[in-house]
Amino acid sequence: MMMDAARIVEYFKGKCILVTGSTGFLGKILVEKILRVQPDVRKIYLLVRAVDEPSAKQRVQQEVIDTELFGLLREKHGKGFQQFVEAKVVALAGDIVYDGLGLEAAVLDALAKDVDVIVNIAATTNFYERYDVSLDVNVLGVKHLCMFAKQCARLRMLMHVSTAFVSGFREGLILEKPIKPGESLREGTYLDVDAELRLVKEVKKSLAANGDGDGDSTERKAMKELGLRRARHFGWSNTYVFTKAMGEAVLGQQLRGGDVPVAVMRPSIITSVRRDPLPGWMQGTRTIDSIIIGYAKQNLSCFLADLRLVMDVIPGDMVVNAMMAAVVAHSEAFAPPLPQVVVYHATSSLRNPATYDVLYQSGRRHFYENPRVGKDGRVIPTREMYFFTSIARFHLYMTLIYKVPLEILHLVNLLLCGLLSRLYNDLNRKYKFVMHLVDVYGPFAFFKGW
After folding, report:
1. Which residues contact 96 (CB under 8 A, 6 or more apart)?
2. CA angle (71, 72, 75) in 5-degree steps
3. Which residues pair with 339 in a beta bridge?
4. Which pLDDT does position 278 carry in this prediction?
5. pTM (2 d.p.)
6. 260 and 202, same structural domain?
7. Closest of 245, 283, 262 to residue 164, by C-alpha
8. Which residue from 118, 103, 12, 17 is spatially nearest to 53, judged by alpha carbons?
9. Cβ(213)–Cβ(219) under 8 Å?
10. Torsion 376-381-382-387 (CA) sign
């Protein structure tokens, strides 16, 4: 269905929208975009973690409204900016990990009567997150939001943001298919969400019974390792994409047979704003930025990547534009007969592919033309990077260059009665950290799907 920008903008006029995850990168872009292009939106409710309403309001003000991303909107409204925001934006102190979204009954009832559109962006995106935390936010959070959606008398659309990598690391064309309950990527396995929730409770109970549960660090490590182990058992590479896949399955299961249109947006690697409101804007350090920063500081002499492969990134503002268009396209006001759950891949690999070589050559050219200067005022020379085209080659390199010398250092340290313990422990910790990063992030460097 073809839609022009005016039609999309008009749809949001007079609407009440509930947004989760508004303090995150994508959430901020969405809130700013709606307020800027459709000032006649009725209300935008922002569900944020806070102890009470004043704290929620303060958090939204500091972490969302006061950011530089809202500069264009601030300039547009001038002195009336704050008044405009206060009339449109409502901060709610709650959390999707709880029944009823953690809201008081009266607030929840009033919200259910008012909301036209729900946009769920809330998620923990840490690849190596605790399994219990990931299940709470990425899976149970979706369930609680679906239960709330069923109570909303005016609801016309539920937009859920997932990730393109729930499809795993298959090669070739990956179709936009909903994830069915029980579906996994490993043949012969059945993914039972309730069983996974029970498993977490049993493991934590066992840790406590053995006297290990008292230490936060012990439980944290156990939960992180459990998440990765379960993800790989079912065919996913890390806890984040695994629990996002479960969240999608729960979404379809909870709203099956209902009358609420549901759209799932699966972006690939989200990067900075391309066009508006602030080209190049980025919040924090995201996946690709870590590589650029490491190269800029000359801390990265080598990296894991096949420069010929497509680096599937998508600007944040393009993802938000796609989300808004999908909401309009599949809301009951305009939609022809459609599947209840529709899936969109917001990616660049098929339409406008860019290889890892593009990233490397762009960064290399920039730092040759604009070299960094150290604290002593001297120019930091820009070196070439070496790229390993397989994880096996990288492991061999790390073993010969780092692991073997580490073992020699360990032996010398023993002979010297621990004199070099601090040096050995520090280098060993760094080695293990790098190997862990490769283990978790490595598959993304060789992704061949589109």
Report:
1. 20, 47, 102, 120, 122, 137, 140, 141, 142, 144, 145
2. 85
3. none
4. 93
5. 0.90
6. yes
7. 245
8. 103
9. yes
10. negative
Q: Is residue 275 part of a domain?
A: no
pLDDT digits (tens, 9 = 90+) for 379-400: 888 888 888 888 889 999 999 9
Q: Are residues 330 and 379 in the same domain?
A: no
Given this model, what pLDDT does residue 144 score? 98
- Let me know whether 73 and 56 are in one domain: yes
Residue 180 lies in a domain: yes
pLDDT value for 347: 92
Low-confidence ranges of the chain (pLDDT < 70): 1-2, 212-215, 285-288, 290, 332-339
Bridge-based pairing of strands 16-20 and 43-48 is parallel
Range of the domain at 293: 280-311+355-389
Contact 33, 19 (CB under 8 A): no
Residue 3, Ramachandran bin (φ over 0: left; ψ between -120 and 50: alpha; else beta): beta
State the catalytic residues. 240, 244
Q: Which two tokens stand for residue 130?
A: 């605790």
Q: Quote the CA–CA distance of 24 and 67 in Å, as a whole number.
A: 12
